[in-house]
Each structure stands twice: as structure tokens, then as C-alpha cells.
Design a protein that fits this description.
The chain has helices at about 1-30, 35-60. The protein is mainly alpha-helical and about 60 residues long.
């Protein structure tokens, strides 16, 4: 049960990172990149958390 919940959280973090990157590309194209750095930062944090969850899931 613990491993499956960590897998679900890992998938959620990967999806959040992908959505944040897509939003960064959209803002970069439509508005000239004024708010792009916020979404890139959010994507980086999401991918970092996904990586941490992946390590926890493989260890446990």
C-alpha cells in the first residue's frame, strides 16, 4: 500500500511539472515571456519532488 501511494504521488508530481512547462511555453509564446520564470521554477520544483518520491519508492 505504501509503495502504491508513493507511485501515485510521483505521477502527480511529474504531471504537475509537465503542465507547468506547458504553461511556461504558452506564456513565452503569447505574452513574450514576462511570467515564464515562475512556471519554469514551479516545473523544476515539481520534477525535484518527483525525483525524491522516486528515490523513496525504490528504497522502500
Amino acid at each position: 500500500m505504501r509503495n502504491s501511494s508513493l507511485l501515485i504521488l510521483e505521477i502527480i508530481w511529474w504531471a504537475t511539472g509537465a503542465i507547468s512547462l506547458a504553461a511556461a511555453v504558452r506564456f513565452s509564446v503569447t505574452e513574450g515571456g514576462a511570467k515564464t520564470y515562475i512556471f519554469i521554477l514551479m516545473a523544476a520544483v515539481s520534477f525535484l519532488f518527483a525525483w525524491i518520491r522516486h528515490k523513496q519508492r525504490k528504497k522502500g
